[in-house]
Automatic annotation (TrEMBL):
Molecular function (Gene Ontology), one example: metalloendopeptidase activity
Enzyme class label: hydrolase
Record-linked Pfam families: FTP, Peptidase_M4, Peptidase_M4_C
FTP domain segment(s): 55-102
Protein name from the UniProt record: Neutral metalloproteinase
Entry keywords, A to Z: Hydrolase, Metal-binding, Metalloprotease, Protease, Secreted, Signal, Zinc
Function: Extracellular zinc metalloprotease.
Localisation: Secreted
Swiss-Prot/TrEMBL cofactor(s): Zn(2+)
InterPro entries in the record: FTP_domain, Peptidase_M4, Peptidase_M4/M1_CTD_sf, Peptidase_M4_C_domain, Peptidase_M4_domain, Zinc_Metalloprotease_M4
Lineage of source species: Bacteria, Pseudomonadati, Myxococcota, Myxococcia, Myxococcales
Family matches, as PANTHER family: BACILLOLYSIN (PTHR33794)
Domain Peptidase M4, chain residue ranges per copy: 197-340
Amino acid sequence: MKRHLLAALTTLTLVGCDGADSPTVTSSREVHDEVELSSAVKRAQQNLGMRTPEEELVVRSVFKDDSGEEHVRFDKRYRGLRTIGGDFVVHQSETGLLKSVTLNSQASLRGLDVKPVFDGAGAVVLAEKVFAGQRQGPGSAELVIDAREDKAALAYEVILEGLQEDGATPSELHVLVDAKTGQIREKWEGVHTAAATGSGKSLYSGTVSIGTNSVTGGYELRDPSRGGFYTVNYPTNAVFKDTDNVWGSGTTADTATAGVDAHYGQQVTYDYYKNVHGRNGINGTGGTGYSRVHYGTRYNNAFWQDSCFCMTYGDGDGSTFTPLISLDVAGHEMTHGVTSRTAGLVYSGESGGLNEATSDIFGSLVEFYAANANDPGDFLIGEEIYTPAKSGDALRYMHKPSLDGKSPDCYSSTVGNLDVHASSGIGNHFFYLLAQGSNANPASPTCNGAAVTGIGKDKAGKIWYRALTVKMTSSTKYAGARTATLAAATDLYGANSTEYNAVNAAWAAVNVK
């Protein structure tokens, strides 16, 4: 009988090597086969230094790859409190042997005082001082453990809703307030922005085939063959409907044109993840979310929102942006959904830069996958939508991120202080070098002056996807991403392979060691 890592709908307590109780391990959902915690998780607990009865491990997800290896992602609770940055991944062979454990936080929770000095209402008041937009509705506060750094701390995670400073983009601001001192430990935005069989005439991709649904009186932009995703017209949020299953005019004069682009982008992204990486929908279990277009008035952005698991696209003002519904933007936004259901990279600091880089990487790979002559694949982000009067520019440039005037080409210890759309430049530059090399067209200057030979975008994409889904955790920084991608390259191609060496060289070329 195969031995699996999890116990189906059960809670077990193991005994550590020193005789102290180990933390309980809880499966949050039923797993497909009979399973055993056995020595694999016990050894993982020992490796992680977790032997206190106050710590509980909660299974977030289980992923079994093509080789038969099982990767189980755990969240941690301490004295009943959710632990931010305490998540880790246990990797087990097909025969049940523990192979490795991926974690980033080394913070000890033993003896941590979990009694706050003030209550959640006080935390909301403190958090509101850093909300820069327009507040709407009440705030919420949850007592948590912040274990992302070397020393864990008791904190409130406050969520404040409203509008961002532009007065149009929704805001779900997460603020970590130290529950002992009242200091703001961290903040990040929960709304992730991009700034950037019917027949449809799209704005950017020409005439395309799109999956639709037959309904009384005609058809709707809903694709039952791809998880049932659909496209709606803001602000009514009504699903687009049509009588003859021919959609849009290829111009902005027809509101359905934007619907075609968004629907097509969602379709291609779904197919990319399924056919290239074997992923079942954006959330990994068949769910794909939905798209809404024509958001706001002359709105210069697009965004992903976890709470609705949906993409939202503005029409642009016509000068800075045209409608933000291009293929790479669609792939970018939906990848935020993939990240939220896998590594869960916190949208702040270096992990936020990695979150954005991940969306840029797969946004570009979705564009390549589509092989659409009207919007050929490239390593530019938003080239179709940005400054229509200026030819050849883009929102971001993966071969030389600094061309946008904000993003660094090379890593430094201050990268985490930048906006996440700028700090993503390190990950974007690394990926271009890994895929294309430094002497590709366009050439990509390295930070150490060394030449880098690329391994091709397909192999590079597989390495990044594996790193994201089974190696990275919510608090991964650039050094951790290097470790994760090297481990992924080892799994896929071998420890001394050309691919492994290319990963190492590409990170060195952007000053990540």
